[in-house]
Amino acid sequence: MTTFGKSTFDTSIYAAFRPTCPRSLFDFIFRYHERNKGARWDRPVDLGCGTGQATVELTPFNCSGYPEENASGAQSLPFLEDSSVDLVIAGMPLVRLIYSEFRFTRYPSLTQKIKTYSQGVDPLHSVGPYWQQPGRSILENHLVKVPDGNEVSSLHTFHQRNPTNAENPPRGDIAVQFWKDLKEGAEREDGRAVEGHDEVDIKCSLALMMVKRA
Fold first, then answer.
1. The whole model's pTM is what?
2. CB atoms within 10 A of CB 199
3. Contacts from 77-84 at CB under 8 Å and sequence distance 24+?
């Protein structure tokens, strides 16, 4: 059972802060799909849909009723009949790949803090030791070797194993500490206080692969 299926996992917070892809990306995919001879717009499938950030972008499809959710491994989808699906997307699960690829375009010196927070080895000051292994290492190695396995939220696991961390004044829990470290780093580089309305650009890698049945 994955971390995301546990009753202690807060899906509303997860959905609110989960990265999303721009609408222009989905429009690009739909244009690719419509170029196929006899393209249908009846049944799309969103693999690893999570809380549905990508699912809701499938508006061009003539879906009737409510979306249907099924659980299975990605290597086998027994609930789908052959030739019954018009489009398959699997975008949001790949967001796991980019945690170590985030870049601060304006504050490049702070990029290392992301890696330290996400991939560090200190069990009290990094969520690195709480990723499910070997899955996380395989992701960081660009999926060279992919075994069967489940995904996991390292921050959720960190809080389960360190329940008093959230009561850590004045810095707050590990996620708040991470955010404050970034804020203070930006203040040092700018020579001024960072206000709540200030914006910071974060750059991450995005790869798009589209295939069609011959």
1. 0.57
2. 5
3. 77/45, 80/45, 84/43
